[in-house]
Design goal:
Layout lengths: L3 E6 L7 H14 L4 E5 L7 H4 L8 H5 L9 E3 L5 E3 L5 H6 L5 H10 L4 E5 L6 H9 L2 E6 L3 H16 L4 E9 L3 H10 L3 E6 L2 H4 L10 H14 L55 H14 L61 H13 L3
Helix pairs in contact: 1-10, 7-12, 8-12
C-alpha cells in the first residue's frame, strides 16, 4: 500500500507553509506514522536549513538527474524525515519540476505513510506540479486580506490541474474580529486554526511541545487522515504537558500587579496643611479593587486607553485557559482548531475591522473552490 501525498500551498509568502509542512510531519510522526517533508520550494528552499538537516545531495540534484531521492533524506530528532533542498542558484536552474512525480514522489510514497510537499510562493510551474500530483492540497493563509486572496488563486489553480483541495489552515489567529470573520465564513473548510505563537514568530519552525499550536497541527493531521483524534503513540508533540515558550517571557502580562504605595506627599510650599478629609489616591484604587472583587469581577488593571475586542455573537471564542505555575496555559484534554490562543502575544492582525468588506469578498472566492 502506498502512502498519501499532501501538498502545502498558499500563494503568499510568509503565511506559514514551511512551518505547516514541518509541524504536520511532527504530528504524524508522534502518532506513529512514517512521514517525510519534501522541500519542493525550489527557488527559496529553507526547510532543511530551518530544521538543521541541510546537506548534499539535495532534491535539486534529483530533479537535475544527478542523484536518487533516497540519498537526500535525513532524519530529524522529532521522528520524521526530510528530503532536503538547496538555496544554490545554479542548482535551481538545473532542477526540472517535471521530474518531481516520478523521481521524487514516486519512490517516497512506497516507503512512507505520508509525503508532505512544501511549495513556493506565487503561481508558477514549480507550484503547479505539486498541486496536480497531490492526494490532497492544504491551503495556508492568515486572516490578512492579501493572504486570503492569494490562497484563493492557488486553490483555483489546483482545480485546473485536477488537484483536490482538502481545506484551509488559518495561521497566526488571534482573538479579534478579522480572525472571527475568517473562521466563521469558512466554517468546516478550516482544517486547523493555528494561534499566534511567540516561538514561531521568533524564528522557530516547530511548535513548542504541548502548545496550542501543536494541538492545532495535530488536529490537521487527524483531519487529513480521517481519524479522530490523532493518537500519539511514538513521541511527544501535542498531547503532553506544555513546555515553556522560550519567547513568552518577552510578552506583557495580561494582568499587572498593583503598584507599590507611594511615599506620603510633602506639605505644600504655601504652608497649608493637606486636606485630611480626602482619601489618598492609592486608597481609592485599593477600595475600588476591593469593591469590584466583592461583586465577583476582577479589578481592571489593564491600560485604560486600550480597546478590548468584543466577541462577535455566536463566534464561539472560548474563555482563556487557566494558567499553570510555569506561566503556560494548561493543555485541554480535547481541543478545537477554532480556539485562538488568548495568552499569546503579537500584533499581526489589527483589532480594527476596516478591511471587513474586502475580506468578505476574498473569503467568498475562497469558499467557491469547495462548491
Amino acid at each position: 500500500m502506498t502512502g498519501q501525498v499532501f501538498t502545502v500551498a498558499g500563494g503568499k509568502g510568509g503565511v506559514g507553509k514551511t512551518t505547516t509542512t514541518a509541524n504536520l510531519c511532527a504530528a504524524l510522526a508522534a502518532a506513529g506514522y512514517d512521514a517525510v517533508a519534501v522541500d519542493a520550494d525550489l527557488a527559496m528552499s529553507n526547510l532543511a536549513q530551518l530544521l538543521d538537516v541541510a546537506g548534499d545531495p539535495t532534491v535539486h540534484d534529483v530533479l537535475a538527474g544527478d542523484a536518487d531521492v533516497e540519498a537526500t533524506v535525513r532524519s530529524h530528532d522529532r521522528g520524521f524525515d526530510v528530503a532536503a533542498g538547496t538555496r544554490d542558484l545554479e542548482a535551481f536552474a538545473d532542477a526540472d519540476p517535471a521530474r518531481l512525480r516520478d523521481a521524487v514522489v514516486g519512490p517516497l510514497v512506497e516507503r512512507y505513510d505520508a509525503v508532505v510537499l512544501d511549495t513556493s510562493a506565487g503561481l508558477s510551474h514549480e507550484v503547479t506540479v505539486p498541486l496536480g500530483l497531490a492526494d490532497a492540497v492544504v491551503l495556508v493563509t492568515t486572516p490578512d486580506v492579501v493572504a486570503i486572496k492569494d490562497a484563493a488563486k492557488t486553490g483555483e489553480l489546483a482545480g485546473r490541474v485536477d488537484g483536490e483541495t482538502a481545506g484551509v489552515v488559518v495561521t497566526r489567529t488571534r482573538d479579534d474580529e478579522a480572525t472571527r470573520q475568517v473562521l466563521g465564513e469558512l466554517g468546516d473548510r478550516v482544517l486547523a486554526a493555528v494561534p499566534e505563537t511567540p516561538a514561531i514568530a521568533g524564528g522557530a519552525v516547530l511548535a513548542p511541545v504541548g502548545s496550542r499550536a501543536a494541538q492545532a497541527y495535530s488536529e490537521l493531521g487527524a483531519r487529513l487522515l480521517g481519524v479522530e483524534p490523532l493518537r500519539e503513540t511514538a513521541g511527544r508533540y501535542a498531547v503532553a504537558p506544555p513546555e515553556p515558550d522560550p519567547l513568552a517571557g518577552d510578552l506583557e502580562p495580561a494582568v499587572t500587579t498593583a503598584p507599590e504605595p507611594e511615599a506620603e506627599p510633602e506639605p505644600a510650599d504655601d504652608g497649608e496643611p493637606a486636606d485630611e478629609g480626602a482619601p489618598a489616591e492609592a486608597d481609592v484604587d485599593a477600595g475600588t479593587a476591593a469593591i469590584t472583587e466583592a461583586e465577583g469581577e476582577a479589578p481592571d488593571t489593564a491600560d485604560p486607553g486600550a480597546d478590548a475586542p468584543e466577541p462577535a455573537a455566536g463566534a464561539g471564542v472560548p474563555d482563556p485557559e487557566p494558567a499553570s505555575a510555569d506561566g503556560e496555559a494548561d493543555a485541554p484534554a480535547a481541543t478545537s482548531s477554532f480556539d485562538p490562543d488568548r495568552e499569546r502575544g503579537g500584533s499581526f492582525i489589527d483589532d480594527g475591522d476596516d478591511d471587513s468588506e474586502e475580506r468578505e469578498g476574498a473569503l467568498g472566492r475562497l469558499r467557491d473552490i469547495f462548491e
